[in-house]
Every structure is written in C-alpha cells, then in structure tokens.
Design a protein that fits this description.
Helicase, Ruva Protein, domain 3; Rossmann fold; 11 strands; alpha/beta; 2 domains; 45% helix
C-alpha cells in the first residue's frame, strides 16, 4: 500500500505547485488522524490544496465560510418539524463529510468555533441530545488570515490544541509561481478533471499500518525531553501540554511511514516538532517585544536537546 500512497503524493504535488513540504505535512496529519490549522494570506491556494486532497481521495468535501453571524447549528445541523409526516426530522449539517474546510475560522464567535470541538476530538456530533457518529475518515482543515484582525475572534487555546499541526502557507518560488500563472492563463489548470488515486477503504487500511510504526524507547525519551524542555525555558511563558507530545509522536509515525520506514527516527521528531508546537506554546512578553518568532524559539529548543545515538 506504500506504492499507492507514493502515487497519491506524486499526483498531489503535480496539482499543487510550490508547497511540497506543506503537502507532505498535510498528508501526514490526515494519516495520523489529526486536524490542521492553515495560516496564509489570501490567494495562496489554501482552498485548492484541501479540495484537491479530497478529490484525489475520492472523499466527500464540504466548505463552510465562517462569518460573525454563523450559528453552531449551521455547522452541526438541527431538528425540524415535518408537518407532512407529523414528526421531528434531523437535518445534518455540513460537518457530516470526510474533509471539511473551515474557511476563516477566526471570523466567527467562540460559541460557534466550539461547535467543532466535539467533532474534532470525539468524531461525533450531538444534535438535540442525539449523538451521531462522523465518518471514519474525518479531517478538518481550518484557515485564518494573518493580516486582517478587524472583526476577528482569536481561537481559544483549548481549540488550537485540538489541531495536530499549524502550517504557514507562503508564496511559492519564482519559477513555480510563474508556472502556476502560465497554466491558469493558458487554461490548462482547473479544467483537468480530478481522478481518484486512493479510495477511502484503502486509505483507512494505510492509517492502521501507520499506527503500527515503531517508536523506540530512546526516541520516546527524546520526544519527551523536547516537550518538557518547553516548560522549563525562560523564553516560553506556557509550555507544551501532554497532548502536544502525543501529537508529535503520531505525526512522526506518519512522517516515517511516508518516508518508507516502519520505525521513527530523531529526524522525524525534528521534522514535525515545529508545526506541532508553534500553536501550543506562548512566548514570554519580553521575547515577543524583541521580535523573536515562535519558530525561532522552537528551533533553539529542539537544538538544545541531545539527539539519541
């Protein structure tokens, strides 16, 4: 099944140019059973990235545009009275899908944002006291705009912690961006039909194999030292939680599997540590005033922990 996954990744990289690392991290997240927070300026292909992932998987895709007046029931669904049949009927919301794009999630109040919490953590939704299971493959990708803060509601720490990764979507390199423009102008992009590369049952079977990837005792110790070091560093006000350590471990298993191995190495931990931690730690005020970024602190943190031999 590794060959099918390799073909999937190759098809994905041909469709989305200039984002190879982010595509591999996005695929690692869904393989690990987690969810992703995407941050990037408008027009960098965030929606297309998620829609293409869904098309290549052959899964259902729904997109919700988050706005200040969006209600929790607009996401989860509601009960209505069917006058013809004289009974109440459940109308399931757009969250009942395989891949959900929560577009500009920080534009809606915390109450509506929280409607995603149960679904992301428990893979179930409660409507008027009735609990409904979500599909086995359920993946939430939420986007937020880093440059417009008027009329936004910052994500609560508890909800940010539900995301396995936070990925930054930057502009592609000159040649890659030029190729994107050329394809669109010549009408070669967008008109090509998406062909399913992996079906959902096969993908579910691959996810079971990912969970069997070995995490050795020395690698586990290395991962724990990184997490605990984040709580002891003066530059960090609030360190990583236990869930952060679990996220690093699961993501490293997926990254190792994508790399063709059935065991996790310290390099796998290094690769996934930054996207798994950048939204889970808070810098000390004096560090923020100096202009130091979270990513810089994480690099220093990981570099300070001795690599096991």
């Amino acid at each position: 099944m590794r060959q099918e996954l390799t073909s999937f990744l190759e098809s994905y990289e041909k469709r989305i140019l200039g984002q190879k690392l982010n595509l591999r991290l996005l695929l690692s997240a869904i393989l690990a059973g987690g969810h992703v927070l995407l941050e990037g300026v408008p027009g960098t292909g965030k929606t297309q990235m998620v829609r293409t992932l869904s098309g290549l998987l052959g899964g259902d895709f729904n997109r919700i545009q988050f706005t200040p007046d969006l209600l929790p029931s607009d996401i989860t669904g509601s009960m209505i009275y069917n006058m013809k049949e004289g009974s109440f009927q459940t109308l399931k919301g757009p969250i009942f899908t395989n891949i959900l794009l929560a577009d500009e999630i920080n534009r809606t109040p915390a109450k509506t944002q929280a409607a995603l919490l149960e679904a992301m953590e428990e893979s179930q939704v409660t409507i008027q006291g009735e609990t409904y299971q979500l599909p086995e493959v359920f993946f939430v990708v939420a986007t937020q705009n880093p440059i417009e803060f008027e009329g936004t509601y910052p994500l609560p720490e508890a909800q940010q912690d539900r995301f396995l990764f936070k990925l930054y979507i930057d502009f592609p390199a000159f040649d890659e961006e030029k190729l994107v423009l050329k394809q669109v102008i010549e009408n070669h992009a967008g008109n090509r039909p998406l062909q399913e590369v992996l079906d959902l049952p096969t993908f579910s079977a691959i996810r079971k194999e990912v969970r069997e990837v070995t995490v050795g005792e020395n690698v586990l110790d290395y991962m724990m030292k990184i997490v605990r070091k984040s709580r002891e560093t003066e530059a960090i006000r609030f360190g990583a939680s236990t869930r952060a350590g679990i996220s690093i471990g699961k993501a490293a298993q997926a990254w190792a599997y994508l790399s063709g191995r059935d065991y996790v190495t310290p390099d796998d931990i290094k690769m996934v540590a930054k996207p798994a931690l950048r939204h889970r730690i808070q810098l000390s005020p004096h560090i923020e005033l100096e202009g130091t970024t979270v990513d810089q602190i994480i690099e220093e943190l990981v570099g300070s922990v001795p690599v096991p031999r």
